[in-house]
Amino acid sequence: MKGVVVVALATLASLAVAGSSPARVRDLQHVTLIGDSVADGVELDPKAVTILEQGVDLDLEVAPCRRVEGLGCPYQGVRPPSVVQLVQSLGARLGPNVVVAAGYNDYEAQFAGNLEDALAALKAAGVKRVWWLTLRAAEHPYLTMNDDLRAAAQQHPELSIVDWNLYSRSHPPWFQADGIHLVAAGAEAMATLVHKTLVAQGVASPPPRVTTSSLPPAVRDRPYRARLSATAGRAPYRWQLLERAPAGIHLEPDGVVQGVPLVPAGTYAFGVSVRDAAGSFATRRLTFRVSAA
After folding, report:
1. Is residue 280 within 8 Å of 210, Cβ to Cβ?
2. What percentage of the chain carries pLDDT values higher than 90?
3. pLDDT, tens digit, for every residue of 141-193?
4. CATH of domain 207-291
5. How far apart are CA 257 and CA 274, in angstroms?
6. Per-domain residue ranges for the chain?
7. Are the CB atoms for 262 and 247 separated by under 8 Å?
8. C-alpha count within 13 angstroms, C-beta hemisphere, residue 92
9. Pick from 166, 168, 231, 186: which is nearest to 51 by CA?
């Protein structure tokens, strides 16, 4: 392949900046994520937040040292409310869908009871569906606590288990030295797992898909125009480049690729992204062939 352009000007993380707060769509389902310092890694990573908020009205309620029930450990002079306390204080503001990523600060012997109390509080608050992430079993007690989660799911039809322990098992680089807290790649992986779960269960809108794989050929120094296409998601779509297109070629927000190619004859490649009205996005790398005039 000749003359491939590989100068990256944007990454997926830039989508969080470029679109920073996607326009609210009134019929998006509200999802509240409650977590401790592990889930805090998601909130601190803009790319992870961008992944997680696709197709939902998202509320992040995370705090280091949070317990499911009982007094949390002190963090920067503050003890955060437990999951139970937070649920009781937020009440109906939680909405119908809650994701919980907590439990690492609880005691093994008390976890099953704490879990029951949390589910009771969620039900009293009007929550209809609960997704609870399993704990990464870096320590043996977390295996027993994961068994408690599965047992609770058998008794509570509103509770679904999201198996973070299994999903992350073969990926040590996702974690800090303790094997529990997340680095950026782990935060993005957790966000991806939760988002996929919400899409599969009909809570999050399905993301768009770029259907254009290659562009019509162009001729150097002659006007060029083509349009990118996408399916699924929620129109209208908004397009942007993830890296520089060949000189003279531009991508408009409506998906029109136009300009006058000023590069030598050859085959080029560049990445594009499309974001829909619900804040979901997709990316694709396109090929672009230029012939001599």
Report:
1. no
2. 80
3. 999 999 999 999 999 999 999 999 999 999 999 999 999 999 999 999 999 99
4. 2.60.40.10
5. 13
6. 29-200, 207-291
7. yes
8. 0
9. 186
Beta bridge partners of 243: 8
Please give the mean pLDDT across all residues of the chain: 90
The reply to whether domains 29-200 and 207-291 share a CATH topology is no
pLDDT of residue 26: 56
What CA–CA distance (Å, rounded) separates 292 from 136? 57
Q: Which pairing describes strands 97-101 and 30-35: parallel, antiparallel, or unpaired? A: parallel
pTM of the model: 0.78
Q: Would you state the CATH architecture of domain 29-200?
A: 3-Layer(aba) Sandwich (3.40)
Kindly report the three-state secondary structure assignment for every residue of the chain: CCCCCCCECCCHHHHHHHCCCCCCCCCCCEEEEEECHHHHHHHCCHHHHHHHCCCCEEEEEECCCCCCCCCCCCECCECCCCHHHHHHHHHHHHCCEEEEECCCCCCHHHHHHHHHHHHHHHHHCCCCEEEEECCCCCCCHHHHHHHHHHHHHHHCCCEEEECHHHHHCCCHHHECCCCCCECHHHHHHHHHHHHHHHHHCCCCCCCCEECCCECCCEECCCCEEEECCEECCCCCCEEEECECCCCCEEECCCCEEEECCCCCCEEEEEEEEEECCCCCEEEEEEEEEEECC
